Amino acid sequence: QAWGSLTFTFTDCNNGSAAWKSNATSAAAGYGDISFPIQRLTKIVGTVCAPTQAQAAWHWASPLPQGNALRAATQSADQFLAVGESGTIITSPDASAWSARTSSTTTTLTSIVEYKDQFVASGDNGTILTSPDGVAWAAHSLGSTASLESIVGNGSELVAVGDHGAVFTSSDAIAWTARDSTTTDNLHAVAWNGSQFVAVGGSADDFTSAVILTSPDGATWTPRDSVSARCLFGLAWNGNRWAAVGANGTEVTSPDGSTWTLRNTGNANSQFSLGWNGALFVTVGANGTILTST
């Protein structure tokens, strides 16, 4: 879960500024924006700071291939892909050597899936991108400026969810239809288990409430009792049960998506993402927390 962006701007070799810009998540938690001047105090002996005209155009040097925050990743049969802030898309054949791709957007991308022999990425302000190979990307209109948090496909239908209860469906990733989610809370994750979609989220204001929705087709949604007083961020299915994690170490599980049970993780750190690897649930979160469960 990203909380904002930190930008460094330099006016010359010795002076500049640092600016922190909160996003909706951190703003809702009470954090604001701030900027302050910075000044170089030391330099390596024998070096001269006098950029030429050719050096005036800046490019990522470290870390390569770029340095923007990454928000989501997926893999196909022959490559890995990751997306993130400022329209970042990177690809790799082995998860070791990565190449930056041109997305033609500077909007934050929050989710990516493989669907019907193409990749589909979604993000803030209604951004939808598709690519047949992960290299060349095309933009499509969602018909809304809703910010999307998660996207999933079931082979015949894509479902994208996002802020303020946004739910959109598409059979081709090009034409999208808005659906009534029955909630105005933010939806942070959506998943498919072979028979139904489940979406989770919570209060857009203070993370003190949770929402869980189920749908057989992505079009009609039913709210479920979340049994949690904390916002949910991550969701996964292991073949037998659903698990969802969220703020302050919250975890809930369900065998069917309808009836949920609150679990004790023994952890107070917020968990932002959850996955299943065939043997273990793995969740990651605040303060470097990584938890596993069977």
Mind explaining what this structure looks like?
With 294 residues, the protein is an all-beta fold. The chain contains one helix and 26 strands. The protein has one helix at residues 24-28, and strands spanning 4-10, 15-22, 34-39, 70-75, 80-84, 89-92, 99-101, 109-115, 118-123, 127-131, 138-141, 148-153, 158-162, 167-170, 177-179, 186-192, 197-202, 210-215, 222-224, 232-237, 242-246, 251-254, 261-263, 271-276, 281-285, 290-293. A hairpin with a 2-residue loop joins β8 and β9. The two termini are 24 Å apart. The mean pLDDT is 90.
Feature tags:
4-stranded antiparallel beta sheet, mainly beta, 294 residues, 46% strand
Largest sheet descriptor: 4 strands, antiparallel
Rough shape?
globular
Order of helices and strands: EEHEEEEEEEEEEEEEEEEEEEEEEEE
Helix content percent band: under 10%
Structural category is: mainly beta
Which regions contain 5 or more consecutive residues with pLDDT less than 50?
none
Number of helical segments?
1
Q: How confident is the prediction overall: mean pLDDT?
A: 90
Number of strand segments: 26
Strand order of the largest sheet: 4-5-6-7
Query: How far apart, in Å, are the first and last alpha carbons?
Result: 24 Å
Q: What portion of residues belong to β-strands?
A: over 45%
